[in-house]
User: Fold this.
Amino acid sequence: MKVIDAFWEKRNLGVDTVEFELEAQDTAALVAQKIKENEKVYNVVKIPAGRSDLHFLMQELGYVYVETAFHLIHDLKAIPLSPLQKRMTDCVSYQKMNEDDVAQLYAEIKKGMFTTDRIALHPSFGVEIANQRYINWIGDELARGCELFKLIYKEKAIGFFTFKKLSDDVYYPFLAGMYESHIRSGLGVNIVIKPVEEAVKRGAKFSDTYVVTNNLSSLTANLDYGYKIRGFSTVFHKYKGEETC
Assistant:
């Protein structure tokens, strides 16, 4: 069991936050003890697959289920595309962002690009805070060496994806999205396909990412375009002193 002081969330959410990452061998008694000893204002518990017994413990401790996070992996082999999807990817290119591109990305995110994560859905936080949190996350990852790419259609930026190297064999596109002007354009396939193409170009063996159940369209797209489920965890949370969602 990992007890993580999520100090970065003080900047993002304005409250002290702790994350509990449970492991398969953890007993219910140990989990209950560690949670009671380490709770802060905002508390997040991640439970591995196969431990549904701990879901009942969460209820006893006042926690609420919020999402399931799927760990997905792509073997970078054949990408299943229909003729129409192939046309939709062939007409879109991508290139690494410069400072102006990053500023444009942040402006697009501030419009409310992300609405399905546990922070956006929580009544004490909401979409505005959630999207600023994504901007902060991207900024932190850029400082650690990740790359940002913009998707281009007819010489116009229409979306983005992140690209983080985990090892020589594995890349992690941890976040992607379409800009407001092209949300319903049919070009969204590219936020899944283009990071895979870039990983292939770099000689990687796998692309690795996570998607939550509240973002059903993203989960479906990733599975449709070659990702496989490697594992999952159920996520519970509690905001102390206020009604949970």
